Amino acid sequence: MSSDIVLETRRLVKRFGGITATNEVSLTLRRGARHALIGPNGAGKTTLINQLTGVTPPTEGQVLLGGRDITGLAPHRRVALGLARTFQINQLFGELTPMQSLALAVSSRRDAARRWWKPMGSDREIATEVEALLAQFRLEAHADRLTRELPYGKRRLLEIGLAVALKPSVLLLDEPAAGVPAGERQDILDTVAALPADVSVLLIEHDMDLVFSFARSMTVLVNGAVLTEGTPEAIAADPRVRAVYLGEQHGR
Ligand SMILES: Nc1ncnc2c1ncn2[C@@H]1O[C@H](COP(=O)(O)OP(=O)(O)OP(=O)(O)O)[C@@H](O)[C@H]1O
């Protein structure tokens, strides 16, 4: 059913001079999707995400959110319409605590940003929501520490929590496990697995354990173009996909 499609790209192209970073990429994300985008280095994943968020204007093609053409919209307008991406660590406020950052995100969503300076207790609803997010992202024990002092994995959890605090209809997860030490990875896998069912998620990730534990459908991008899409089982068994990855992982 077409009304089930929450995010769609139609033949998205991005050229940087002579390089075609994305080459007629058409994707559809259905409500509640758990979709992974994989591909070797330089495949065009970051460019595609940037086209979705509005950071990189496409050379050709369209992006539709809930059936609406958002190709020309600025990033903040897309966020307001329900398309959120995980914040990057270098965008976190190091001098705020996770509780303060989440309270800012929740209150900005509730259109109460101008009241952000009020003590937490003054708005019970915001406080309750922040507490739930702290629990959901396993940040309770770190709620009052400065973000810059948190273990790396906890900062990555906060990135995801801040995006979820916006209650998006579509969540773009950009390499949530990248750089996370082995001892902290399980937290990422578990919290990503427990994301709200009604949020449609597009995951970009190199960590195949996370990809295959999370995704119910996948797209493989190679040289800017879609090589194939399908279930994780079909993708894992596809000799073309294996060839691409064996080439990349050779010598590891
Ligand atoms: N701003 C830019 N200017 C010129 N070329 C670019 C730019 N951004 C990306 N490219 C090129 O576009 C191609 C796709 O890059 P992109 O970063 O999107 O791939 P990727 O799949 O995200 O790779 P990785 O997994 O290594 O991050 C590459 O050849 C890259 O060099």
UniProtKB/TrEMBL annotation:
It holds the Pfam family ABC_tran. Gene3D superfamilies: P-loop containing nucleotide triphosphate hydrolases. It comes from the Bacteria. This is ABC transporter ATP-binding protein. SUPFAM superfamilies: P-loop containing nucleoside triphosphate hydrolases. Residues 7-248 form the ABC transporter domain. InterPro entries: AAA+_ATPase, ABC_AA/LPS_Transport, ABC_transporter-like_ATP-bd, BCA_ABC_TP_C, P-loop_NTPase. It comes from Roseateles violae. One of its GO terms (molecular function) is ATP binding. Keywords: ATP-binding, Cell membrane, Membrane, Nucleotide-binding, Transport.
